[in-house]
């Protein structure tokens, strides 16, 4: 009997010890995604806790992570052999790798399309007789389906950069003439006389155009559905308050609300379109823009969530405090200038912290894959997670890929952000199975030791200089 009792004690001790093992994955500029020595919890001692995690204080639910499908991304991938292309898709979407589960797709041309197009460029075709997604069947949809082959339950949402040009007051896909940022790169052929300010509505607000645009959205969702691609939601306009030299369309809040309330939502109901309607993507820092939609129940009942990017980061915290039950998404991580360096990843980390600490349920990168030059079709070079040299076939996983993976690989849908105290470069989450994920960044040039307290126990994490680190354990 004594021997049996001792065996039980040993088994219990072994189980507790195993449960307290902390796995650590670390990445720095030269040594990425390295499994470090396991850590252990110890009894709390006199050392001061630098970070305290509160597993009993769950904050917002996390929906996931991802990026955007764009034509230039598929063009770069198509330069590779099927084997290498498939390995990239696997590394982005498989549960064993980055595990992306939410992605955006442009509704017709984005600034990373091969060129401008819409699904109906026939002037004043109000009945949408000439609507078609033929171009997408050869470019965007194969890109999306390659991801679906790895992640069949991938959540996909769409947003337009511009309506068909003939629906806009200047009859052009863009709002500002000239080259990007005043440079010599390709801009557009529009003259200055057609410029539209970013505080005006660029859409023709007459009944026939509004009705046709609602039909356009409905046909888009149904056309993709026929191709085996489900669009879970749409955000009605990319960057609502921005007038650049590439496809774009600004909306005053009262005009966009009128379109959603009187045309888009009724059309979706009439056509039995199940896709949610989100307000977004909001790049405007004044929360009054979003308040216009949420404070009026005759409008807010049609709004299933709000997407923020760029300047919208200034508004998300206020909106979350005032409307804590509204779903919020960071829809497009800021893209840099094509540097693809560690400093870019550190800046993106600051954005990730900001958005989650201000109520975001999901965080999306912009271009997952591009040619290594990173230039849009309108000349702006931007960052990407994975760079491809189409001539040499060389593939590079950039620092931001590993940063995203440090979260997306470990934090699964329906996890919760956890309340914490102390420190500034960390985020903590709890997955549905109870496991805890702690992301720690060391932005200093020296090794840092961080004391972390959880439920009265302590651990000491030694962080390499300039590193991102993910610690995981099951209480």
UniProtKB/TrEMBL annotation:
GO terms for biological process: glucosylceramide catabolic process. InterPro entries: GH (IPR017853), GH30_C (IPR033452), Glyco_hydro_30 (IPR001139), Glyco_hydro_30_TIM-barrel (IPR033453), Glyco_hydro_b (IPR013780). SUPFAM superfamilies: (Trans)glycosidases. Residues 425-471 form the Glycosyl hydrolase family 30 beta sandwich domain. Belongs to the glycosyl hydrolase 30 family. The lineage of its organism: Bacteria, Pseudomonadati, Bacteroidota, Sphingobacteriia, Sphingobacteriales. GO terms for molecular function: glucosylceramidase activity. It comes from the Bacteria. Residues 62-411 form the Glycosyl hydrolase family 30 TIM-barrel domain. It comes from Arcticibacter svalbardensis MN12-7. This is O-Glycosyl hydrolase family 30. One of its GO terms (cellular component) is membrane. Keywords: Glycosidase, Hydrolase, Signal. Residues 1-19 form the signal peptide.
């Amino acid at each position: 009997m004594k021997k049996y009792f001792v065996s039980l004690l040993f088994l219990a001790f072994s189980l507790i010890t195993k449960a307290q093992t902390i796995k650590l994955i670390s990445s720095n500029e030269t040594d990425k995604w390295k499994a470090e020595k396991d850590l252990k919890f110890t009894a709390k001692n006199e050392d001061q806790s630098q970070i305290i995690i509160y597993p009993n204080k769950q904050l917002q639910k996390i929906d996931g992570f991802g990026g955007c499908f764009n034509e230039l991304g598929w063009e770069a991938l198509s330069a590779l052999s099927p084997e290498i292309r498939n390995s990239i898709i696997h590394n982005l979407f498989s549960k064993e790798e980055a595990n992306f589960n939410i992605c955006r797709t442009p509704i017709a041309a984005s600034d990373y399309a091969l060129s401008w197009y819409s699904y109906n460029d026939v002037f004043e075709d109000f009945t949408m007789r000439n609507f078609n997604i033929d171009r997408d069947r050869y470019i965007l949809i194969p890109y999306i389906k390659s991801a679906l082959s790895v992640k069949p339950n991938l959540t996909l949402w769409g947003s337009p950069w511009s309506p068909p040009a003939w629906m806009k007051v200047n009859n052009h896909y863009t709002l500002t003439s000239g080259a990007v940022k005043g440079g010599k790169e390709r801009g557009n052929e529009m003259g200055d006389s057609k410029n539209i300010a970013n505080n005006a509505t660029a859409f023709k607000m007459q009944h026939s155009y509004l009705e046709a645009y609602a039909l356009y959205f409905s046909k888009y969702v149904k056309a993709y559905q026929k191709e085996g691609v489900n669009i879970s939601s749409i955000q009605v306009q990319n960057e609502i308050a921005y007038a650049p030299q590439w496809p774009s369309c600004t909306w005053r809040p009262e005009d966009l609300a009128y379109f959603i309330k009187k045309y888009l939502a009724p059309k979706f109901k009439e056509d039995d379109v199940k896709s949610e309607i989100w307000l977004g993507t909001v790049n405007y820092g004044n929360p009054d823009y979003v308040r216009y939609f949420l404070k009026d129940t005759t409008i807010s009942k049609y709004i299933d969530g709000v997407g923020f990017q760029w300047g919208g980061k200034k508004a998300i915290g206020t909106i979350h405090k005032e409307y804590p039950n509204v779903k919020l998404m960071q829809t497009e991580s800021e893209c840099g200038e094509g540097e693809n360096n560690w400093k870019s990843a550190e800046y993106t980390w600051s954005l990730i912290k900001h958005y989650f600490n201000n109520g975001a349920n999901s965080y999306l990168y912009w271009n997952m894959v591009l040619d290594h030059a990173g230039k849009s079709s309108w000349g702006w070079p931007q960052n990407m997670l994975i760079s491809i040299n189409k001539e040499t076939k060389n593939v590079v996983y950039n620092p931001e890929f590993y940063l995203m993976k440090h979260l997306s690989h470990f934090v699964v849908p329906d996890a919760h952000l956890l309340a914490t105290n102390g420190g500034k470069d960390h985020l903590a989450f709890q997955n549905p199975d109870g496991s805890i994920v702690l992301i720690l960044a060391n932005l200093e040039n020296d090794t840092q030791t961080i004391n972390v307290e959880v439920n009265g126990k302590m651990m000491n994490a030694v962080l390499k200089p300039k590193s991102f680190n993910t610690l995981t354990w099951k209480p």
